[in-house]
Write a structure and sequence with these properties.
By secondary structure, this protein is of the alpha/beta class. The chain has two domains: 3-183, Rossmann fold; 213-306, N-(1-d-carboxylethyl)-l-norvaline Dehydrogenase, domain 2 (Orthogonal Bundle). It contains twelve helices and eight strands. It has helices at 18-27, 39-58, 67-72, 80-84, 98-111, 164-176, 193-209, 215-233, 236-242, 244-253, 259-266, 286-306; strands at 8-12, 31-35, 74-77, 89-92, 117-120, 139-144, 153-158, 180-183. An eight-stranded mixed beta sheet has the order 3-2-1-4-5-6-7-8, with helices on both faces. Helix 1 (18-27) links the parallel strand 1 and strand 2 (31-35). It is globular and about 60 Å long. The structure holds nicotinamide-adenine-dinucleotide (NAD).
Length: 313
């Protein structure tokens, strides 16, 4: 199955994620069935798609004239068999329970054509631990982020038995849909990014429980640091600015070990100060690298202030 062969898709579950995933396919010219057990959810999903598209049009991301055709490419139905008929690519975005996922994969296998790729948008459970289908080579995780019609990344996570052909076809198809598709092979779970996000929420619950900070203070504190730095240096490169020696010292002070940082220090890759860390700074001086970073930080800060982003939405 090659991505160029994916002409029809089916999205199962018309909730927070499903309606918007279907919209992305339709925006890119792909006929898409949207299936939900609940007719009210289907009706609501189509209203949301219209409103999403109108917002995108305000930002020049779609043309107002194209909106009716995009909407017409989405075919809502409560009947799974109808939705799956002729589908080349199916993605389920139903409730996150093992029973529900197990059952839907059996049904997808039953109702979709034998060559269709069967994808899950699961965000926390590892479907490959329990999904049983005759050809597991065609099962894969495609983990989208809310809202799918805006966030560029889709994590593509093949299971131990997913075929190379399925992985490549899925990634290529998502790229054709305008998405940044990153393949995380061997990941034990459906999402790498969620691991970072989940770690961030642990101290949030603790701070609230222990009365250290209000929700508004937590959000302000995090935004006033991370909103400026994270988009520019991410998670790994930030440590090149911190300095790998310090990273190692901090790890040791917690009584931990860090083989990756140890190896970098051994190689003299201390970060920006030595011209190489995780990244190679191509012979630029430390002052030049810091200047490049600071210009981006200042622009980001300006942009956040313009958006009034330090206040809640
Ligand atoms: N909400 C998020 O931000 C987010 C982000 C990434 C991934 N996910 C994952 O996406 C999936 C869906 O999450 P959501 O937030 O869109 O859920 P949701 O509750 O908003 O929507 C789920 C929809 O699935 C429908 N449904 C349930 N069983 C069905 C079935 N057998 N056949 C057809 N329709 C069925 C429900 O009626 C409901 O409308 C979950 O696996 C979740 O972990 C969610």
């Amino acid at each position: 199955m090659l991505s160029s062969n994916i002409k029809k898709t089916v999205v199962i579950g018309a909730g927070v994620m499903g309606h918007s995933i279907a919209q992305v396919f339709a925006q890119n010219g792909v006929e898409t069935c949207l299936v939900d057990l609940d007719q009210n959810r289907l009706d609501h999903a189509m209203e949301l798609v219209k409103s999403n598209l109108e917002t995108l049009a305000e930002f020049g991301k779609v043309s107002v004239n194209d909106i009716p055709a995009i909407i017409n490419r989405i075919h809502p139905t409560p009947d799974l068999a109808t939705g799956c008929k002729d589908a080349d690519f199916a993605v389920e975005a139903i409730n996150e329970t093992i029973d529900a996922k197990k059952k839907i994969f059996s049904l997808l296998e039953k109702h979709c054509p034998p060559k269709a790729i069967l994808a899950s948008n699961s965000s926390s459970i590892n479907i490959f631990d329990f999904v049983e289908i005759q050809d597991p080579g065609r099962s894969i995780v495609t983990h989208w982020f809310a809202p799918p019609h805006i966030i560029p990344l889709v994590e593509v996570v093949p299971g131990p038995k997913t075929s190379q052909e399925t992985t490549e076809a899925t990634a290529n198809f998502l790229r054709k849909m305008g998405k940044l598709a990153l393949v995380f092979k061997g990941l034990n779970g459906p999402s790498l990014v969620n691991r970072f996000q989940d770690l961030m929420t642990l101290p949030m619950w603790e701070a609230m429980e222990k009365g250290w900070a209000t929700p508004a203070e937590i959000d302000l504190a995090v935004k006033a640091v991370m909103a400026i730095r994270l988009p520019i240096v991410g998670v790994a490169q930030r440590l090149d600015f911190t300095g790998m020696n310090l990273v190692l010292d901090i790890t040791k002070s917690y009584g931990g070990t860090n083989p990756v940082a140890e190896e970098l220090v051994k190689q003299g890759r201390l970060g920006v100060s030595s011209g190489k860390g995780f990244y190679d700074y191509g012979g630029r001086t430390e002052a030049e690298i810091l200047r490049d970073r600071d210009i981006k930080y200042l622009k980001m800060l300006e942009c956040l202030e313009k958006l009034d982003a330090f206040k809640p939405v």
